[in-house]
Give the backbone structure.
Amino acid sequence: MPKGNPGKPKSKEHNLKNKEAQLRLYASGKTKMGYQKGNNNIAKRLDIRKKISMALTGLIRTKEWTEKNRLANIGKHCGELNPMWKGGLSLRGYDKGFSRILKRAIKSRDYNICQLCYSVSGEKNLLIHHIDYNKKNNKSTNLISLCKSCHGKTNHNRNYWTLNFITLIVCNSLNR
């Protein structure tokens, strides 16, 4: 928040004092915001950044450390070990009726707008979501247009989203 009276013309005396203060700050090696001028900012130095990283995480992450941990974690969250595992539902394919033509029709029905956040994403950035999470159920009342961000949210708490979208579809059908 600026101090003083914004918009009010400043006197010559005020401007002169302000200019002198700026010159003193510049001569001392600091800018108005208190940072050092040029590339002398201590937090930009590589050795200081490593120390800050170590203080925040408790260790220095070297390339060797990163590679060792990456290799140690391979396969730990795959398949049934993943906390989001739903018995292999994502491995099952879509029904033949879930075609480009059907997807375009649903997007057109929803005016190419995400039905959760109402962002105008355009046809290419919208995804079609199965409300009951059954890939074989391709009835128009079970399909809804969502942007990528909102579609990602629907992978958690499925009961909540199913009820939420059923309510939304019913309300939309009453308003049309």
